[in-house]
Automatic annotation (TrEMBL):
Taxonomy, superkingdom: Bacteria
Compositional bias annotation for Polar residues: 672-682
Organism classification: Bacteria, Bacillati, Actinomycetota, Actinomycetes, Kitasatosporales
Regions of compositional bias (Low complexity) in chain numbering: 1-27, 683-707, 728-737
Record's protein name: Adenylate cyclase
Length: 747
């Protein structure tokens, strides 16, 4: 057992020393003593939360794996380091997170199953308390200081406060790097990467005639915009031809809503978090206000600049409200029915797996286990037997069976306490409404009941189900990456239904946002279209039309907004570097083979073991890696809820360790070359390989699942020094750019 010291939390002030945790140090040979001249360079494209998490894992693993060799890291991102584009400070103060402050962390804890050391750090709530107490001195803008003063662990913070936290995490991480590792930030777009498979990589920055040179490059690009697909191009052309407004999928904070006129009828396709953000920006963001009535009912006061919104989706209702209370008492012992052992058993089956037939019954049983464990242990007065009795019988019956239904009915008298996942999934299924007002009344009642239930600890069984959902979500990537799931089921059931179901139950807005939605509905500004929303174009009248399965008639509108995020797509991405990588064949798109049919997922293919980029032939590039939502590694969130063995943290650790080993070999090889004793690396790190099995820690094993005031002056080259560990640019001149350099930097 080795004690890994915990660094101070503050980059600007000394904090009291905190006793360090005891962690296991993986077995293996100690790194060889480095050559005196050994050094290496790493370029990371992207400097947002995912890149920051990778940097933290490099800092954590460096004492074991760097051997003291010099390593210079370039971070390339036009947006502020730490926060990146999505979480940058420059966005509306009205936009909030959909997680409580105590449920957001960028740091590992004992739940994370990884080979590197665990290094604790504060959650967003803990960081806020330390800033508030003066333990940390972090410059904040006045509105953030006011927010911080009233923040509690159960507060849903603004995105601007999260930006300040992420900026601090980045600077703290940079300050925690050992002296042999330095970081340099370039506030530029990276537009192309070139270089041989076994040699130096060149990363070209927008407007720069000389590239950054790197021994290894990592793409941590975050969420990306996409060029319109065929259907979106058709809708955009229709809008242009008829003088209408059409906004394709994009990130809400970046949407240009200036073309949406006051009083204009606007169709909104999508009822998730993107819709909630757009709803806020188009109402309160334009000057509307809310007041609370004597019974606590919220009332909206229009400013006269609001459009009239008509929203619909497949389900026809918004995502469930986020649970507004913390866990108390016993935590459900997860995983129980869908953990590593269950995944191993599924992978051992012959033939292809079908999600609905083979996997969903185990996940559903896991969700039920978390739900009922909480019901029986926290609210035993609402059950007729004790938990051990119920648990034994529950384990013996299958999900969806008559035996399970009988067990639940006999053990839980109140139907409202019984879990019905099918009813939760399609709340408007089979319902028919005589007119729009009947639908509005029904959906308002549905939302109101959901808000009340999700705020009431008497229904904390829902929190048990939520924790089980997180556990299942973290164990599923290994099955997906194995290729064992039939392609058709993977696309239809996992990429389609499961991801939507998870988001609908576990990733909804805070309750107060839904209260605002109800107030806007009562004011006639938000109108519900219903389930299975359909959009058509009326060429004769020159309008968009929308209808739904449960409501007769249609509504006309002169604007259509796709209120959802753009899908990941390497072929249509607006990111020039990634699209060119794909067009050159150096970045392969994931292709699922369904008999004689090839199905493209849009995701960049990376190796399961350590996230190396695979080319169009499936070869892993020895010196290029990629992490994030644009890859098929299946880990979207860069930060996580504490205690959930977050997949992103496991991936960051696995990749950081692979990077440090590879960079060490390259540095030693270069040093030997300089001394005239060049030899081939002995490790397999530099060998060309094809993707292998999912035994690597990237797939993971699941036990359970900015303030601008912090920025330093920008140098003449456009790079900025972020801490004493971050140095000014020192990029040596390189060979002339390739013949197609102009293509690499086109605007």
């Amino acid at each position: 057992m080795t004690a890994h010291p915990r660094p101070s939390f503050s980059p600007t002030v000394s904090s009291p020393t905190v006793s360090s945790p005891t962690v296991s140090s993986p077995a293996g040979p100690s790194p060889a003593a480095p050559s005196p001249n050994a050094s290496a360079t790493l370029v990371v494209v992207g400097a947002g939360p995912r890149a920051t998490g990778l940097l933290e894992r490099i800092a954590a693993n460096a004492p074991e794996l760097s051997g003291g060799r010099r390593l210079h890291i370039h971070l390339v991102d036009p947006y502020p380091p730490g926060a990146g584009r999505v979480w940058r400070l420059e966005q509306s103060p009205l936009l909030r997170m959909n997680s409580m402050a105590e449920d957001v962390t960028m740091f590992t804890d004992e739940s994370v199953v990884c080979d590197g050391p665990i290094r604790h750090g504060p959650s967003l709530a803990q960081w806020a308390e330390r800033v508030r107490s003066g333990e940390l001195r972090v410059p904040l803008e006045p509105d953030l200081e006011d927010e911080l003063a009233g923040l509690s662990g159960s507060t849903f913070p603004t995105r601007r406060l999260q930006s300040a936290y992420l900026t601090w995490v980045f600077q703290h991480t940079a300050d925690s790097l050992p002296p042999n590792i330095t970081v340099e930030v370039h506030r530029k777009h990276a537009v192309r990467i070139t270089g041989p498979r076994r040699g130096t990589q060149s990363v070209w920055l927008d407007g720069e005639p000389v590239p950054l040179t790197a021994d290894v490059a990592v793409l941590a690009l975050g969420h990306l915009d996409a060029l319109p697909d065929r259907q979106e191009r058709v809708l955009a052309a229709f809008a242009r031809d008829h003088g209408l407004t059409y906004l394709p999928p994009e990130f809400s904070a970046d949407s240009d809503l200036s073309g949406i006129r006051p009083g204009e009828a606007v169709l909104m396709r999508g009822f998730g978090l993107a819709f909630v953000d757009l709803m806020v920006l188009l109402t309160e963001g334009r000057g509307g206000t809310y007041t609370e009535g004597p019974r606590g009912t919220l009332r909206y006061h229009p400013c006269g600049q609001e459009p009239v919104l008509y929203v619909g989706s497949r389900r026809g209702v918004p995502y469930h409200s986020k649970i507004g209370y913390p866990l108390t008492g016993e935590r459900p012992p997860l995983p129980r029915f869908f953990g590593p052992d269950a995944v191993d058993a599924l992978l051992a089956r012959p033939g292809r797996l079908d999600f609905q037939r083979d996997i969903w019954p185990l996940i559903a049983k896991e969700i039920g286990y978390g739900y009922y464990h909480r019901l029986f242990t926290a609210h035993p007065e609402r059950t007729t037997v004790n938990w051990p009795q119920f648990e034994e019988k529950y384990a013996a019956v299958d999900h969806g069976s008559a035996e399970l239904q009988a067990l639940v009915a006999a053990s839980i008298p109140d139907r409202a306490d019984r879990l019905d996942l099918e009813a939760l999934d399609r709340p408007l299924e089979g319902l028919r409404f005589g007119g729009p007002e009947a639908l509005q009344d029904y959906v308002r009642s549905y939302i109101g009941l959901d808000i009340a239930r999700r705020a009431d600890p008497r229904h904390s069984a829902d929190l048990g189900a939520f924790l089980a959902l997180l556990s299942a979500y973290g164990n599923l990537p290994r099955l997906i990456a194995s290729g064992a799931i039939a392609p058709r089921s993977r696309l239809r059931d996992i990429d389609g239904w499961w991801h939507g179901f998870f988001s609908y139950l576990a990733s909804g807005p805070p309750g107060p946002r839904l209260e605002q939605m109800l107030a806007l509905s009562r004011a006639g500004i938000v109108n519900f279209v219903g389930a299975d929303m359909r959009i058509t174009t009326d060429h004769e009248r020159g309008v968009f039309r929308a209808g739904s399965a449960g409501l007769p008639g249609e509504v006309e509108a002169t604007a259509l907004i796709e209120s959802r995020l753009p899908a990941a797509t390497v072929s249509r991405t607006r990111d020039r570097l990634l699209r060119r990588l794909h067009e050159d064949g150096a970045g392969g798109e994931e292709v699922l083979r369904d008999g004689e049919r090839n199905i493209r997922t849009g995701l960049l293919t990376v190796s399961a073991e350590d996230a190396r980029v695979l080319d169009g032939q499936g070869r892993a590039h020895p010196r290029r890696f990629a992490l994030g939502a644009h890859t098929n590694a299946r880990s979207f969130a860069a930060f996580a809820r504490p205690g959930t063995n977050a997949p992103a943290f496991r991936q960051n650790d696995s990749t950081a360790r692979a990077l440090l080993r590879l960079l060490g070999e390259i540095a030693e090889q270069a040093s030997e070359s300089l001394s005239g004793t060049l030899s081939e690396p002995q490790s397999g790190s530099l060998s060309e390989s094809r993707p292998g099995s999912m035994s690597g820690s990237l797939s993971g094993r699941m036990s359970e699942s900015a303030s601008e005031g912090l920025a330093r002056p920008v140098s003449e080259s456009g790079s900025e020094s972020v801490s004493e560990r971050l140095v000014e640019p020192a990029c040596a001149p390189t060979a002339a750019a390739p013949d197609d350099r102009k293509e690499a930097t086109w605007a």
